[in-house]
Amino acid sequence: MERDVSAKIRLYVEHPLGEAQTLPLSREQAHYLFGVMRQGAGDHLLVFDGKCGEWLAQLEQAGKRGGTLRVLEQTRPLRMPPDLWLMFAPIKKARTDFIVEKAAELGAARIIPVQTAFTNAGRIQRDRLQAHAVEAAEQCGGTFVPEVTDLQKLPALLDGWNADRRIMFCDEAAPSGAPVLPDAPGPWAVLIGPEGGFSDAERQRLRGLSHAHPVSLGPRILRADTAAVAALTLWQQALGDWT
Amino acid sequence: MERDVSAKIRLYVEHPLGEAQTLPLSREQAHYLFGVMRQGAGDHLLVFDGKCGEWLAQLEQAGKRGGTLRVLEQTRPLRMPPDLWLMFAPIKKARTDFIVEKAAELGAARIIPVQTAFTNAGRIQRDRLQAHAVEAAEQCGGTFVPEVTDLQKLPALLDGWNADRRIMFCDEAAPSGAPVLPDAPGPWAVLIGPEGGFSDAERQRLRGLSHAHPVSLGPRILRADTAAVAALTLWQQALGDWT
């Protein structure tokens, strides 16, 4: 059988994948594949479930409200990102979406929206943010989708923190040229504050934690979304899977 | 006289600034200051011109279609970014705007939209992109505004290139874990390709340039806007003013 290995469409599915399975398509997936992307029965695509790698699949039945696909063979194994979390204070909608997208692209394993003293958002739309993480993984060839958690309050998060996980604490008030990351492998989390920065009390608490490492992101003030991308980049370069 | 040093509004003005000057406000500036921000005569703000640093100023006349401000005293000298250019292939509108905003925040000195073999955009709105760079500088406390040039074709740009300026060539096809930046101070330019990457001919030409250094941005495929932020971050950390 001839394989269309040039399949460009990548779809995240919630079912655990394995050879010779037939999977149902949701209404949204059917709309995307057959309505938007003009695919039909017989066409190939790539699917991944976030756990079992990436698989070549073929569309079997195509309908307006659903359909089925058949899983053919694994094209790539699961590639886990490093054990890096991103904690960030949600900001305006578009920029929050952007942070989640970029965190998924840059290989964060978990994304935790955090409510700080100066965070405006009192709630988030977790499902929408999770959908952005899925879309980023689909677009960018990832086989893993980071979980987006519910909004958590910073004090409670720090109360329950396992000190084995170091915190890269991106602090506007850190002296420029501050020591960069210690060469410490293992679990980490990046912490980005809101546009107004951290409160004095938050900064004091974080500076008192031996597992938190204040880091400066240069002499210019960065927006929170820029800071998130810059911090994840620096971590990946120093301690992650970029080298 | 009491100074309102908590002035939060920062405005870019095109006039060269100096002590005790009176400057006219444009219609747009008047609308922003008096309509949107509810300022009035007597209120203070910060102004910068991209050349003479940041100055405290006071609004003198407030009108619907204009007004004047008086420049009081310099609050910060001009801080030039390093001699780093960003060359990028324009993509969808929102993401192109984003790249320009981020480049200004991250301290690029010049922003060059580049037409490559796989670039969709045949033209750009230079004035709109320049306005984004100005807004980013206003927001982020910068005293310098990078120039956004007209769209340039990559082959012509490379033909006229001064080899003293090294190129950080962000290549999806570079081997992961490729050597990072050489420790070479002096002028640099970051080059980011379009979503489809570079053509074989472009890649071959760039690889043949002794002043171009291919760099890998990790094992995941990054969108062009993510790649731009990540590359500028790595450069600033290695060779720029972040350390």
Automatic annotation (TrEMBL), chains A, B:
Superkingdom assignment: Bacteria
Location within or outside the cell: Cytoplasm
GO molecular function: rRNA (uridine-N3-)-methyltransferase activity
Ribosomal RNA small subunit methyltransferase E methyltransferase domain boundaries: 82-236
Gene Ontology biological process terms from the UniProt entry: rRNA base methylation
Enzyme Commission numbers on file: 2.1.1.193
Principal location listed in the UniProt entry: cytoplasm
GO CC field: cytoplasm
Reactions listed under catalytic activity: uridine(1498) in 16S rRNA + S-adenosyl-L-methionine = N(3)-methyluridine(1498) in 16S rRNA + S-adenosyl-L-homocysteine + H(+)
Family matches, as PANTHER family: 16S RRNA (URACIL(1498)-N(3))-METHYLTRANSFERASE, RIBOSOMAL RNA SMALL SUBUNIT METHYLTRANSFERASE E
Function: Specifically methylates the N3 position of the uracil ring of uridine 1498 (m3U1498) in 16S rRNA. Acts on the fully assembled 30S ribosomal subunit.
The protein, known as: Ribosomal RNA small subunit methyltransferase E
Organism expressing this protein natively: Roseobacter ponti
